[in-house]
Amino acid sequence: MTDKIQFDHVTKIFKIRDVEKGKGSFKEFTALRNVHFSVKNGEFLTLVGPSGCGKSTLLDLLGGLSQPTSGKILIDGKQIDGPGLDRAIVFQQYALFPWKTAKGNIEFGLKAKGVPKKERSEIARHFLELVGLSGFEERYPHELSGGMKQRVAIARSLAFDPDVLLMDEPFAALDAQTRETLQNELLRIWEKTKKTIVFITHGIDEAVYLGQRIAVMTSRPGTIKQIITNSAHSQAKEDDARSTPEFVKTRHQIWDLLRDEVSKSQNDHKKEHSA
Amino acid sequence: MASVSKSIQTTYETRKLIRFSFHWIQKLVKQTAVIILLLLFWEVAPRIGVTDPTFFPPFSKVVEGWWGLVVSGELLAHFQASIVRSFIGFGIALLIAIPLGLLIGWYPIVSDLLNPVLELFRNTAALALLPVFILVFGIGETSKVAIVLFACTFPVLLNTISAVRNVDPLLIKSARSMGLPPYKLFYQVILPASIPTIFTGIRMAGTASILVLIAAEMVGAKEGLGYLINYTQMNFQIPEMYAGIITIAILGFVLNYILVSLEKRFSAWKTNQ
């Protein structure tokens, strides 16, 4: 397999207002430091890390919504120079256009891609069917449940046929049952469409359940601590995949890796508060 | 057995129908009871000498006066004069305020340039400028249209600005991630997202247009509902004066109703958000 995505020593530094020094002064804030890893073509990679470790910053960079301070991000060997329809982002808060119907939302991305009007409707229907929402074409987002909204958002992202699907904690706002259903659906869709998926989460279970490989991030400034090849992944289709010995083992391994990071980031917070 | 169950069903349905119409009547009674009571009081109070019938004639006399104005065509002429002025002013205000508001909301530089002027003007009561408008534009139509234009511009403008500024950043991010260039982002995301808030401004402007116009017509005009009220009062045609006031009240009510329903239609997708 070839590398689809390459992070080549990527660092991202923000300039933020310095409250202590007063108005007009800025200090530097390192969100990501020397992130270096790659994702293979067609791979499902989950990215797990403590809160505030720069997961979302990493995704913004990958989506082309912001530029790295140093280093390069390559897709198919070409450097990213902005947003593009070869990558699709699925957000935690769905980001559906509330004035458009489910179908209209999916057609939006197709229109951006320049798909002729006649084909748009057909494609939209097909992808609504893929996410199990046939018959909901004309519903507006406020008429749909959280889980349904996220299904529409996933359909919208898949419809314009990107190579890479970037998912930013897409199931974090859903209830436990809906989340499990959607996790299974996502695996099914992934197997069917063979997309490369980068899935960000703060849930260890979710990371182990979904990812072929799991990248564990350190606390701020975020960097990749270790990438684990998930031996439990092949069993994901089993009825009770979450209680197989492999699952438990991998889960524990990641938990160990994260434990230090979580306590480190908590100490950081405490320091900030006392300062 | 079958016929029994059928007859039961029929009675049930009839009962449901009766209950439905009863419910409807109940609602109507509830909503109009106080108005009817007030009108009754209006009718009776002057007749039994609670108020002076010269200044406060019974409601039936007012209706009579109103009908007289309708038959003579006077009311229609005044009504037309008012409505034309208010629509022209209102319309021009929309044509100016919406595009300008979009520009100010979207481009910080336009906002920085225009904000001080806007702050100054919007805190100036429209009617305070009426003498100036009459001086500049004369006593004819232009000054009336101009004052309506002035009064309608600000609600629309300010709502448009805040609409553009308050578009959910996540929607913008989502559209940008699909590679939308800025101009498409503007008319495919910013504009539709802003419409409900802009329409709130339009509704407020509609109310303002009538309000300011009537006042303007009272000060300097040769026709219009405001002129009618002022003129009849000076000529001691008291029932006709009340007739004019009622016409304005109904006009305002109808206009507001139309604008509220339009607003609801345009912001249907905003419910439960």
Describe this structure in words.
The complex is a heterodimer of chains A (275) and B (273). Chain A folds into 2 domains: 38-68 and 77-86 and 163-274, P-loop containing nucleotide triphosphate hydrolases (Rossmann fold, 3-Layer(aba) Sandwich); 96-161, no CATH class. The radius of gyration of chain A is 19 Å and the shape is globular. In chain A, helix 2 crosses helix 3 (117-130) and helix 3 crosses helix 4 (146-159). The relative contact order of chain A is 0.16. With 275 residues, chain A is of the alpha/beta class. Chain A is 38% helix and 25% strand. In chain A, the strands form 2 sheets. In chain A, strands 6-7-8-3-9-10 form a 6-stranded mixed sheet, sandwiched between helices. Chain A has a 4-stranded antiparallel sheet with strand order 2-1-4-5, covered by helices on one side. Chain B has 273 residues and is mostly helical. In chain B, helix 2 packs across helix 10 (238-266), helix 3 packs antiparallel against helix 4 and helix 5 packs across helix 6 (141-165). Chain B is flat, with a radius of gyration of 26 Å. The N and C termini of chain B lie far apart (52 Å). The A-B interface holds A 63-65, 82-85, 87-89, 91, 93, 95, 97-99, 108-109, 112, 140-142, 160 and B 170-171, 173-180, 184, 188-189, 192-193, 195, 268-273.
What is the CATH topology descriptor of the largest domain in chain B? MetI-like fold
Radius of gyration of chain A: 19 Å
Report the structural category of chain B.
mainly alpha
Q: What name goes with the CATH superfamily of the largest domain in chain A?
A: P-loop containing nucleotide triphosphate hydrolases
**Low-pLDDT residue spans of chain A:** none
What global shape of chain B is seen? flat
From the coordinates shown, what is the CATH architecture of the largest domain in chain A?
A: 3-Layer(aba) Sandwich
Order of helices and strands of chain B: HHHHHHHHHH
Mean pLDDT of chain B: 87
Main sheet of chain A? 6 strands, mixed
Radius of gyration of chain B, Cα only, in angstroms? Answer: 26 Å
